[in-house]
Amino acid sequence: MKVVTVTLNPALDRQFIIEEFSTNAYHRIKDHKHMVMSPGGKGINVSMALARLGVSSIAIGILGGYTGRVLLTELNKVSPLISTSFVHIEEETRENIVIVDPVNHTMTSIDSPGPRVERKAIELLMKRYEIYLSRVEAVVLSGSLPQGLTGEIYGKMAKMARERGKTVFFDMIDEYLTPALEICVPDVVKPDVRGSVTVLGERLEKLEDYVDAAVRLVKKGCKLVVISYEVKNDVVATQDGVWLISTPEEVEPETILGAGDAYVAAMVYKRLTDRSANMLDVAKFGYAAALAKTRKLTKEMPTYDEINEALGLCTLERLR
Amino acid sequence: MKVVTVTLNPALDRQFIIEEFSTNAYHRIKDHKHMVMSPGGKGINVSMALARLGVSSIAIGILGGYTGRVLLTELNKVSPLISTSFVHIEEETRENIVIVDPVNHTMTSIDSPGPRVERKAIELLMKRYEIYLSRVEAVVLSGSLPQGLTGEIYGKMAKMARERGKTVFFDMIDEYLTPALEICVPDVVKPDVRGSVTVLGERLEKLEDYVDAAVRLVKKGCKLVVISYEVKNDVVATQDGVWLISTPEEVEPETILGAGDAYVAAMVYKRLTDRSANMLDVAKFGYAAALAKTRKLTKEMPTYDEINEALGLCTLERLR
Questions:
Q1: pLDDT tens-digit series, residues A171-181
Q2: Does residue A98 belong to any structural domain of this protein?
Q3: Residue B242 belongs to what domain range?
Q4: Would you call B206 an interface residue with chain A, using a CB distance cutoff of 8 Å?
């Protein structure tokens, strides 16, 4: 076991494939194949992507109610490389909805709030987290938080990990990121800007805003910062400079489900398995994984060969 | 108990209230109040609407898996006027999704296919149906069918009811309606034209097509035919003529969830409680109930007073 992934607000992902999906319309799905249910939540997705790369991980977090049990059953079927240790609560784990339209090339997501989590469950989880920390090399802290938790928990968990010499990866919205950074700066950060393009309290608009935000995060002590810029471009900053990674390939928006998590998993993989790789190589490998993921409509994570192939399709431009 | 409602393919309705819902976007629901779960499927909705009008009914049909158990628990909470007798199967009952946008005034629906139902479950249901038939005055046969069933089952059930002198109401898509009518013609029919405006195998376009289809159904022996024409108009045909019912009121599309079922329930109510009412009065009362329903965003069914008030807002125009 090399990695612990933390998913405090998992979701049962329900993906619907609907041709010509439009608002104010009545859609009738006829084929069960067009409805895919899968374990979700960013940390869990990262564990699934790591398993595809042959990396064992332990997925921990909080699951609730029947939906939580269904999620766990499904997750345990995915790969023997994923161990699980979730704290169970009564209130139901959420279900997130993704509508993929392969004709109009759209992806429409509806994310729900999670259950209320009581302090007792968090305390239990923190004890387990501490135990697992001693057994891993890296920690992935990502995704949304259930009601009653604030970004501070990510800061505390990062601090515990860094004090033990573990590599820490962050992937979360700014609402959690900013307070977490007050407590501890991780090694790698990929702000989640899908809902609102805000980093460190500032709304990013022009490419220059992205570069400035990435540089600010590096100055805070992050070794690698990746900020998604429009669909298929990423601003990457390390202590050596800032780059734009892109691809001439077409990327259809309906294929990006899970791409961000494939990205994080591939960065973890590269960091753990290739000590000669610099941080820019780590980011490139992540980008290639996300690109490889977008070759599939469903949330199927890419293999090593698929990522390696996609690496050849990435372009790099130095920005600063 | 006055009515039996049959729901062969129930659904747990999951309604999401999302302002400015659009495709190819990422929506994050923050408030649990914007997610409403309720028992659904047309027959069940009719039972809930009848209960609001003080009419007791027995809801029968097929429920499956955990979702079916949740649905039944919720349904049993609604009103003591609703009795239930569902055959339970293993495969999961479906969940239908409705996204209501109170800003752009849209309603976007995603209906899923149901479970596979084996013959044994159907046989068991038919036995129960026969027993309950003797205790009621009217039967509502409405909604979609699970996999493995065709419209003939509605025809057979209608025949059993008519042979026992019961009033039969149909509300279903043409795929089921046409074969059902080959076996038995009901008293009242309201073809479900939400997905595809097809009646008796023909696509309806102009108002005249609607009138012709309604007249054809009356000629087959239906006492009352109601076909929804655009959002707020209905073509109504009886053995005495054809009318257009409408209203000068605004009707927002995002409020129509369950309106068709309120319509059917109110027609059942009028038919059973007011023997002096003619079929046009029955249709008007149904229309008023649907209109009253649209004053609410959620699937809350209208009361008698609300329907009566809406009656004053209905206009009637003779077409033929």
A1: 999 999 999 99
A2: no
A3: 3-7+42-87+114-318
A4: no
